[in-house]
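Appendix B. Chain record.
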Amino acid sequence: MEIFILIVALVCELVIAAYSIATKQSRNKIKRWTRIALFVAFVVLSLGKVVEWGFTWGLFTILLFILALKEGIGLLRKQTPPPQYKAFSTIWKSLLLALTLVIALVPALLFPQHRLPQVTGPYAVATATYTYWDNNRIEPFTDQGDHRFVNVEFWYPERTEGIYPLLVFSHGAFGIKTSNTSTFIELASHGYVVVSIDHPYHSFYTVSEDGTIVTINRRYMQEVNDANKEGVYSLGQFFELTQKWMALRTADMNFVLNTILEQAGQQKAAVYERIDTEKIGVFGHSMGGAASVALSRERHDIDAVVNIDAPFFSELLYDQAANRFTAKSEPYILPLLNIYSDDVWIQLDSSSTYIANRTTNPNFKGAYTVHIKGAKHLSLTDLPLYSPFLASLLQGGRKADVDKYYAIETENELILRFFDNALKHQGPFTPKTTY
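Structure tokens predicted for this chain:
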């Protein structure tokens, strides 16, 4: 729709300019009525919900309104002889307006309108956001001596019909707590309380209850970017970085879980009253998936784990003498679902950081491993729905070879069925290896 509207607007302006040049006349009356008609047509499309108006259409709407207002005033004014026709003036004004139209539509092109993934559960979903302050930890990313805080958002069944399992989500390296909102809504609609964590300075940005905004730490961002390049870090240095990242993530998740369990015992707010503290699952995307697996090794109250496209950083050992990674030998006994994109699937048999993820690793012989064929790393988040351009850009210009709705809806269904089986003991869970 965005491309179509841009093409229509540009064609109208260019046709008027070409007609003016061909006839060597300004054609002000035709130009005025055309611009007014464009604005009226856009308003009609918006009121008819053909165009789902939102903030991304703001600049374009303002531009059309200004042009229509200007031309409307021109029509109402007393007619005067048209100014002398100048071809150069017509050309550069048309080019300038065309450029302005493109710029005004950039937000809508970056974040095109889209449908939301299917929600299949019977429950209406409510949300709540909180800022938790950890008085036992000092913020490592600042020199102010402040205590670390964590922002969280809940998705939960709006109606109270008992208590529901708690699911804790951790986002990817540069993600945000709403990165998999479609997954959270789907789960909550089926009777789960889902809480997603913003890890300050690891998340792209996070907003606290008091409106404070904290953006990603540049040093951390550089570390992650360099870790994905060959030759920047030695294997030993890379190992130390991963353990540092895991320590921060698991500390945040531990703190959030402990805070929620404490609040659930006191029943201070509606969301806490709905939590079944005896049934807890953790899941995450990318670095958040790695942290979820790590946390499940530390706590005894976690009952099920979903790892989305992440290496098992916590399962790695670094052999300094041989300068290589090996996998720990401790059996993993919790129900575990691994969901992989093409980006990770092709690495599972290598000697890379995914050595512990190998399907032949006997310590994870009970884990479910699923590959969504054609998916890229960010296909397993909501980002391709909101901005296909940004998703492709962040993946090095590589586009997924799978329909974006198929990828996320398949993932959501798998996660729901897995947790239903592991936490609610409902239905079998026998996934295919490849979807």
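Further analysis of this model is presented in Appendix C.
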